[in-house]
């Protein structure tokens, strides 16, 4: 498992021409299936923590890129300071930035939950210390509670994204510049169990989204929604954010590969020109030389790899499964949802139980985001999921006092 890092600014059709050219759609689908789904016994666990950043004395004040770079020092990502050495945090976690200068810690995958907790605690403490020295602090919710969304990171990719999403509505710029998520990375598992495991991580989405939703207040106003963050993601560009057929497919790699090839390009990386992609040009069109694709060089595997990074679905396969639907949690609160999620996928029996419990609320993403646990149906399922997960926490290697603390916190959230 390898955690996702910053998107390279120098890759794509006009820049990287050394990768293998894709001869046809079949070659593209085969590439996607092979790189997005790696099989084997689940062994590793990772997490990516995003946070908004604020001035401690006035969280409404727009964040200066210079102040953030001064705080992060040698850890500053190169998307903000190209000359930075971009040194990982002490526990080994690289840092990256979102367009609104949200910070992200991408913890190196670990063989156990306790090992992951140690790494993240070390790196989160260091990041908080660095920010505090410059009068900055981390946000505590999944959306900027104090400021409207403004893109402050200048890259070709993000500039093209903002232009693309603007006609659709405010979801795109909000997702880009004002949201912060908690992403859990788990192995896809053995080939024979993949379809069921893939279905389970999707099925858990609505109840866990509702259970840990905390992004109701945005830019000083009550949105009325439990997770305004996830609504922003859903409203960005449905073709690349919504899940379709995830629970019914018996062949996730094939289904995902077909979807990727049929998804329009979000951006088209190139030198000395804007990265705006031709309207409606799917990757399959590009391979086959249809429409605007006939005017471009034949795409390579590197181009397709970059295209994979432009999907913002609830679960994104990248050789492992990146679960993207949870709001960022305050402080060390990230451990509770990660531990619960890990316990719920402990073995085939818990996966089967998850699928049974979550069946009444399958695909109810919007209701979960809008109403959270105020939706009686979702709340009932969330309580059952919480009970199952808490009962399975002993399967993890966390110390008993920590397990008791997590179980208590989860049950309080669920209203048990």
Characteristic key phrases:
416 residues, alpha+beta, 6-stranded antiparallel sheet, two-stranded antiparallel ribbon, 17 helices, 10 strands, globular, disordered N terminus
At a glance:
41% of the residues lie in helices and 10% in strands. The chain is an alpha+beta fold and 416 residues long. A six-stranded antiparallel sheet has the order 3-4-1-6-10-9, covered by helices on one side. It has a two-stranded antiparallel ribbon with strand order 2-5. The protein has a two-stranded antiparallel sheet with strand order 7-8.
Question: What do you see in this structure?
Answer:
- The protein has 416 residues and is of the alpha+beta class.
- Helices cover 41% and strands 10% of the residues.
- The chain is built from 17 helices and ten strands.
- It has helices spanning 25-36, 65-72, 113-133, 156-165, 171-178, 194-203, 205-211, 228-234, 238-241, 252-262, 283-288, 301-308, 335-344, 348-358, 365-371, 376-392, 400-414; strands at residues 45-51, 53-55, 95-97, 103-106, 136-138, 181-187, 217-218, 221-222, 315-317, 320-327.
- A hairpin with a 2-residue loop joins strand 7 (217-218) and strand 8 (221-222).
- Helix 1 (25-36) packs across helix 10 (252-262), helix 6 (194-203) packs across helix 14 (348-358) and helix 7 (205-211) packs across helix 16 (376-392).
- The radius of gyration is 21 Å and the shape is globular.
